[in-house]
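Sequence and structure are kept together here, with a separate record for every protein. A complete record is shown below as an example:
=====
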Amino acid sequence: FIREQQLPPPLFNAFEWGGFLTWYLPEYPVAIDSRADLYGDDFVIQYSKVMNAKVRYTDFPALANARTIVLPRTAIMAEALKTVPGYKVAYRDSVALVLEKE
């Protein structure tokens, strides 16, 4: 869907989907993937905090600046962002939720 609709970068993604997205959508650099050492401890800690709503999404630049967000449908952040003005649900199914920043 992201490729077909040519949703705008940058992309913010779930950690566990980073490797797949790197392979499947190489034109969209991922926000994070399983190579945690590439990103550094501070980035991984902040990612974890934002995904668990321990810090505001606006305080994590990788998410605050993202124009396309792809997360598991049941993720806390997916549920929260779909209600935030300025974001719209572009796609959803039983596995994923794709949001686009308006």
